[in-house]
Amino acid sequence: MEQVIESEPSAPVVLHVSPGPHVHSRSLSTRRMMLDVLIALAPVLVAAIAVFRLYALMQVGICVASCLAFEWLFAAMRGRRAALDDGSAAVTGVILGLSLPWSAPWYVALIGGMTAIGLGKACFGGLGQNIFNPAMVGRAFVMMSFPAMGAKAYIGSAFDVVSQATPLSAAKTHTAFADLWVLFIGNHNGSLGEVSAVACLVGGIYLCVRRTASWEIPVAAILSVALFGGIGNLMYPANAWTVAHHLLSGALLFGAFYIATDPVSSPLTPPGKWIFGAALGGLVVLIRVFTNYPEGVMFAVLIMNAVVPLINRWTIPTPVGGPWKPAKK
Known about the structure:
Blueprint: H1 30-52, H2 54-77, H3 88-98, H4 106-118, H5 134-145, H6 167-172, H7 180-185, H8 197-209, H9 216-235, H10 243-248, H11 252-259, H12 270-290, H13 297-314
Helix pairs in contact: 1-2, 1-3, 1-8, 2-3, 2-4, 3-4, 3-5, 4-5, 5-13, 8-11, 9-11, 9-12, 12-13
């Protein structure tokens, strides 16, 4: 006679999924990723200091200090310990400072840091749970609050006189078209992070090689801008503003490598990253050409951040063996 052994029902398996960024290696910690970003931002900061000297250093310094201070303050208000040593607040401060013009008043940087940490990160629950890029939230807030915060003329740069209008603003009014070599090396007015295309490329390639940033996003964004800019050149061949101007001017390279690749506010799947980058580049050209704003990187990033959950849902990978199907009774 067979003996029947009744086993107790096993407890249900509970899976706890932590918020992003999701790392695949123990060595790839948040601190290491943020350190890589800071190292990659060094060439951009050096180029900004070479052109604007102490003005650039002061702007970035105020933004970093304000982000660190408000990171501690908002964590204390929630009864938590501020993780200032992970480098996330410092990275937000550097990117915010480099996205501002050198002539922005000190209180603009202070308010931008408060908004970036408060509205961009803390109100969503902290690092890894924010929907939008915190630095771009702060940049958008101060841009709307202080619309006259434009880049003024600066005489006495390391190279020569920096003109009053930024290259994109001058092209928008058809008053002047910047030389491509000037845009590539970095000898023009604008936000601190957009003065040198070569500096953005050097730091951005470092991020991709270190696998801290997903290379699919900047490549897709650059190819998309080249495509739509080329279509515009074919439609209006007499226009002196070429595809190369679109690629080298403004904050395209800075945004594509340092902002759009934020692992928290960008898609998780490889197809989603291509879609994200391509749509980002198309929006940049669309805003530059058909709106009153000469630059469109900030708005494009925030718009695409809002679409990331939908992109992730669209691009869920098919598991090995095909999609799951319920067993037939």
